[in-house]
Amino acid sequence: MAVHGSSPNEAQPSGDIARIWREFSWGAIAGAFGEGMMHPIDTIKTRIQSQAILTGTQV
């Protein structure tokens, strides 16, 4: 049975907050990078598809 007490190996609350913000920041950077890379490709794809619909051709 473990005794809950204050030991040097326990995580500090400020360390947990810093870890959460670090993970949040990296997630935001990854999301922005992914969206920045895919948005131009999706725009081109959508324009090609809508052009095919307007002209009546199949891609």
TrEMBL record:
Its membrane topology: Multi-pass membrane protein
Pfam entry (one): Mito_carr
Subcellular location: Membrane
InterPro entries the UniProt entry points to: MCP_dom_sf, MCP_transmembrane
Designated name of the protein: Uncharacterized protein
Keywords associated with the record: Membrane, Transmembrane
Assigned GO CC terms: membrane
